[in-house]
Amino acid sequence: MFDSEMVAEQAILVHIYLSQDSASEDLQELEMLVASAGVQSRAVMTANRSTIDAKFFLGSGKAAELAQAVAELQVDLIIFNHALTPAQTRNLELLCQCRVIDRTTLILDIFAQRARSYEGKLQVELAQLKHLSSRLVRGWDNAERQKGGIGMRGPGETRLETDRRLVREKITALLVKLDKVSKQREQGRKARQRAEIPVVSLVGYTNAGKSTLFNRLTSADVYAADQLFATLDPTLRQVKLPEFGSVIFADTVGFIRHLPHDLVAAFKSTLQESRDADLQLHVIDVADQRMADNIKQVQLVLHEIDADQVPQLLVFNKIDQTEQQARIEYNERAEPVAVYVSAKQGLGIELLLQVIRERLADDFTQLDLKLPADAAIWRARLHELSAVQTESFTELGETQLRIALSKAEWARLLKQSDGLLQNYIVNP
What we know:
Rossmann fold; Alpha-Beta Plaits; 3 domains; 13 helices; 21% strand; elongated; P-loop_NTPase; GTPase_HflX_N; GTPase_HflX; GTPase activity
């Protein structure tokens, strides 16, 4: 039939208006997905239908019109903004004589292009194979592999059955590899939990600016671009926050409407960083007209991966594209619930760090210390952790410090000093 691995450069996009709710927004997102996949859109075909056509999805008349457009524009790919059945895909390919893919296949292809780490590539391949396993259908060339023989009567194994068996075997092998990788990731997660370093996970709709904000907070160089799914692989960085101590920031894959279920399942170990975090930064594109719906979609995915119970702070990003000002928003209990920032311009970042420290206040402690002259090593260590708020010196050469840091960081310092620092606390 048609090689599903060919990279098509030009395509016709198809969107069917089945309801009036956010239909145009979905079409806009399809165009963004197509651009992210490196495909050029030659034409967009739309139609209104009350029900889906079982054979062609869009009806026989529109299907014939689509086939004519393919011939006139000489494109070799049709992309549907919907999930197609294997039979619908096959019927459309036969009629139009070109490849036909649906929204799920397009998203999987983008993920396959963007995956860089070993784990990410395994996860994408697993999702693709699971999707493929449900789409293996009997074709006109599905001939029998063997005719049987002595001791082996019957039609034997058909090509379709062989393909299914090979896909199942490949899925099993990938699951074994992913299990090993996820165990290694779990070991790292448990080590962080033992160290009691707070984890702040960045979540949000794709292209909301998570990676740009992550780079701003951590001085990292994670790839960031104005496109959907610019980064897939999770990145963790440990940062010493002034007046607090060490915090781990975790950048995760962005979410999207109708995120393929197989993809969510495959990335579950990666997304677990969001589930086990102490605080989630829900990054929102404040300049996006679909902002409210994007927030809803992210919450749905977080619920699906059991990460909706983690304390969350809303971070409204890209205020430089609006008339909004950098500010903190409080609820009726005077608790900070949202921060308005521009990660690209660096606006409101100090406010965000301030709120992060407040939201992690349960892990936060303030102490007054008086260090003798021979404890300079611990003074230097506290400065290294950016934990010193005020500092003064006595006539005897003692150093008076007011420090602020996480309880976990203070516990580590006590352990490293064999409890010596406990003796330097003023009015404990």
